[in-house]
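User: Hey, quick favor. My workstation is busy. Could you predict this chain's structure for me?
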Amino acid sequence: MTFLKCIQFFYLLYNIAPVISNVAVKYVSEVTQLNSNGILSVIISPLEFNHYFNPVAINWKNVMRSKLGLEFNIMSVQILAENRPAIPLNHPHDIFLRETKKENCLYRAISTILCGDDRYHNVLRHDIINHLRENPAYISRLLGRFNIIDYLWYHFATDPSMNKNADDIELLGAAFFLDVCIYKYDYISQEWSFYYKDWPNYRPLPMEQQCIYLAQDNNNYYIVNNVRGIDENKNSFSN
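Assistant: No problem, here it is.
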């Protein structure tokens, strides 16, 4: 009888265990080079815990817009479905912002998530950069032997409208400034990268944790509206 109960227990445990995605998620663990153009070379390491797709909802956007003094474009279309249950993170299935201007595309994507269009991209870039300047110790831990002043000068000395390609420091800075976790999918490596204010002491997030999900294709950033089910073919993409 005891043996049969054990079999029943493990069968029940197997069937009720949460379904998780096997898509790779990594994070930047070290900067190894900062060249004369401000371009980073980094080491990435795996994050060995469960990850979910649960985009930021209306309430978070309302609070953040109020905090930053931004307004929502009532003429825009709500791009992300709200109050959906969290699902295992997988490869992107539905992408928004397929066509976008190349300069400041990271900040254009964030502006669109917050406000329905990209008109605040320069404001967000300015605020995030200033936040990094005012909190140098945060990013200095990641830059290590490289000076944050050198990084900021190399990367942000140009006209804000002519932004260099957004890098891992900017993504981490955006997550720090907005107090939100950011996932970025890279179409070349077919892997997600994770950015959050708790770097480098990342711990498993609860399923209900809401995040921003972006995808990068060459130098462009897009908003991920949905991901594939784990039983779908992960080598084919639908945009």
